[in-house]
């Protein structure tokens, strides 16, 4: 896989049982790129490590006054230099390719998982952790996958050089062959504490990221209630904790780096001292001493990759663990589907609550608990909890449909819809039936003033469809964002549309017009609206009261107001005391009416008696 071929047609099915298994799965799926990087790495490192041998041979040729050997050695050194340059160039190219393609694979897997889980993802994993995994953790995972091939090439080069030194000069070669493993493995005892400190740093950074995202999302509300400084102080405290953890982690890695510099230096001093002693005794030549000395000097370069692979694994292991945790989450419904891909039509029925939304009707659902309403809306969209049965559409369980078919049939707009940055044309560039025009959807959602505001905010946009929308629509008010999101949902024109409080942030006049436009545009389609607004309820074909997880009353808005106290309490915000006073007032009125009726009956009786007496 090359960078220009990204994204992957299919990123595959990851082994998400643990972080190390996930890293191993990534490496196996990039075996071709790893082998290329290993080959170029071997060429580069071997060419670099061969230079000391060439220097030694050249010195011996000068001592022996052999011009032929000197010329031959010079040619070999030139070839080694060319191989070093070529190997380094293509090693960097293949290593970066492995890094980017591994990171892209992880990002595709995370995006696919987010698409499969939908809103259930943020209920099971904190939003800050998802952001952390899809940004910083992806880079660290790619770093380790890329570093494996370079480390393998460096390790094989060190092994080859040790064997070559033992064969070339056994006396000094044995010293180097024994000392190099000690140098390479000396930092192993320090890796567990370094890893723990890195884990603590990542954990604190994830919490700080989550706090920052929550603060930014609610910044407007915080400013309104004067809590901005409080949350900023909390973030400052979390940021300082991250800084302290990063300093502690850096100290440990500085110690590891110092050891990686100190021990090769001690080995070099040992080789020089012992080599000088052997040269004085005449057991080795000057050329052989220079060769061994230069080889130990050059080996410091591949030995640095031992430290890098340790650092890369320590940093990527917790990242891979978090990524594997997200990727291991499964959707309650069947993603592949066991039925045909054609979406059914008919009534929408929830067995858990007994709620039924008849086909081609506008059904309003009143629920006193906003959280329960949100969960019910998600369940109607095919996202049931683990202990809830699947919703039925036309008698067919949604979890038996392929994921794409289920989402085509039922669309859920939650109470806090997201507007991505881009133009209004991009916002409405969504899968749609084609039966609803974008202009009609915008008119039904009463977006006229929103379009004017977007055009005024975009100096270079004459067409409202080209007007720019800022990130999450932050330049718009809450009601304007709601109306744009509603227009997007209406334009999609699904078989079943579920709206959770679509007009909670608009004024009553606009809400009345939206209710009428929604009813007209969705004629012949199934629509479910979760609301407690009398303006929307009065225009619904059917109103269902859900109380304590059960549909307890069905009827029209005005009928339920008269006959159902629980419905009246939710819609009119009537308290128990007010209801009791109202009942008492009704009883008093009934008693007074009874007394007046008795007085009137007595008066009529007296008049009848007087008439009888006069007649007699």
UniProtKB/TrEMBL annotation:
The chain crosses the membrane at residues 38-59, 71-91, 147-168, 174-194, 253-278. The keyword ATP-binding applies. SUPFAM superfamilies: ABC transporter transmembrane region, P-loop containing nucleoside triphosphate hydrolases. It holds the Pfam family ABC_tran. Keywords: ATP-binding, Membrane, Nucleotide-binding, Transmembrane, Transmembrane helix. It is a multi-pass membrane protein. Residues 330-573 form the ABC transporter domain. It is found in: Cell membrane. Its main location: membrane. Residues 37-306 form the ABC transmembrane type-1 domain. InterPro entries: ABC1_TM_dom (IPR011527), ABC1_TM_sf (IPR036640), ABC_transporter-like_ATP-bd (IPR003439), ABC_transporter-like_CS (IPR017871), P-loop_NTPase (IPR027417), Type_1_exporter (IPR039421). GO terms for molecular function: ABC-type oligopeptide transporter activity; ATP binding; ATP hydrolysis activity. GO terms for cellular component: plasma membrane. The keyword ATP-binding applies. PANTHER family: ATP-BINDING CASSETTE SUB-FAMILY B MEMBER 10, MITOCHONDRIAL (PTHR43394:SF1), ATP-DEPENDENT PERMEASE MDL1, MITOCHONDRIAL (PTHR43394). This is ABC transporter ATP-binding protein. It comes from Streptomyces asoensis.
């Amino acid at each position: 896989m090359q960078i220009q071929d990204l994204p992957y047609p299919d990123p595959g099915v990851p082994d998400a049982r643990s972080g190390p298994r996930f890293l191993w799965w990534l490496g196996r799926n990039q075996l071709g790129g790893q082998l290329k990087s290993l080959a170029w790495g071997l060429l580069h490192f071997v060419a670099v490590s061969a230079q000391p041998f060439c220097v030694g041979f050249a010195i011996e040729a000068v001592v022996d006054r052999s011009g032929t050997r000197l010329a031959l050695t010079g040619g070999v050194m030139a070839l080694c230099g060319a191989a070093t340059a070529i190997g380094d160039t293509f090693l960097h190219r293949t290593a970066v390719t492995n890094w980017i393609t591994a990171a892209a694979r992880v990002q595709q897997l995370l995006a696919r998982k987010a698409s499969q889980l939908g809103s259930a993802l943020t209920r099971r994993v904190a939003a800050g952790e998802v952001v952390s995994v899809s940004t910083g953790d992806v880079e660290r995972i790619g770093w380790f996958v890329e570093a494996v091939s370079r480390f393998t090439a460096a390790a094989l080069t060190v092994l080859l050089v040790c064997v070559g030194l033992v064969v070339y000069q056994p006396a000094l070669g044995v010293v180097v062959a024994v000392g190099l493993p000690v140098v390479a493995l000396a930092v192993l005892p320090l890796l567990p504490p370094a890893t723990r400190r890195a884990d603590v740093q990542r954990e604190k950074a994830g919490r700080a990221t989550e706090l920052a995202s929550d603060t930014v999302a609610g910044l407007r509300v915080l400013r309104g209630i004067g809590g901005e400084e409080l949350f900023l102080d909390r973030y400052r405290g979390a940021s300082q904790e991250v800084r302290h953890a990063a300093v502690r982690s850096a100290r440990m890695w500085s110690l590891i780096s110092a050891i990686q510099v100190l021990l090769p230096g001690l080995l070099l001093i040992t080789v020089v001292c012992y080599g000088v002693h052997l040269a004085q005794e005449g057991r080795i030549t000057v050329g052989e001493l220079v060769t061994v000395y230069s080889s130990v000097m050059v080996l410091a370069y591949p030995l640095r990759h031992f430290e890098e692979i340790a650092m890369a694994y320590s940093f990527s292991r917790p990242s891979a663990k978090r990524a594997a945790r997200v990727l291991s989450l499964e959707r309650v419904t069947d993603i592949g589907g066991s039925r045909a891909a054609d979406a059914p039509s008919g009534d929408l029925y929830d067995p858990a609550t007994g709620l039924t939304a008849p086909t081609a009707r506008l059904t309003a659902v009143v629920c006193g608990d906003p959280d329960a309403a949100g969960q019910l809306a998600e369940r109607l969209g095919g996202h049931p909890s683990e202990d809830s049965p699947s919703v039925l559409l036309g008698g067919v369980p949604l979890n038996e449909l392929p994921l794409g078919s289920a989402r085509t049939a039922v669309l859920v707009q939650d109470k806090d819809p997201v507007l991505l940055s881009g133009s209004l044309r991009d916002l409405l560039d969504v899968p749609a039936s084609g039966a609803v025009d974008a202009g009609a959807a915008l008119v039904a959602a009463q977006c006229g003033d929103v379009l004017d505001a977007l055009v005024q905010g975009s100096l270079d946009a004459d067409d409202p469809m080209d007007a720019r929308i800022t990130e999450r629509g932050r330049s718009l008010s809450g009601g304007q964002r709601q109306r744009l999101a509603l227009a997007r949902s209406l334009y999609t024109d699904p078989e079943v549309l579920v709206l959770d409080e679509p007009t909670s942030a608009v004024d009553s006049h606009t809400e009345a017009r939206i209710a009428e436009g929604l009813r007209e545009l969705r004629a012949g389609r199934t629509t479910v609206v979760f609301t407690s607004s009398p303006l929307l309820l009065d225009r619904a074909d059917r109103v269902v009261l859900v109380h304590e997880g059960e549909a307890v009353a069905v009827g029209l808005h005005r009928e339920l107001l008269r006959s159902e106290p629980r419905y009246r309490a939710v819609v009119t915000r009537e308290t128990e005391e007010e209801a009791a006073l109202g009942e008492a007032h009704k009883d008093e009125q009934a008693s007074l009416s009874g007394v007046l009726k008795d007085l009137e009956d007595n008066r009529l009786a007296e008049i009848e008696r007087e008439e009888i007496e006069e007649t007699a």
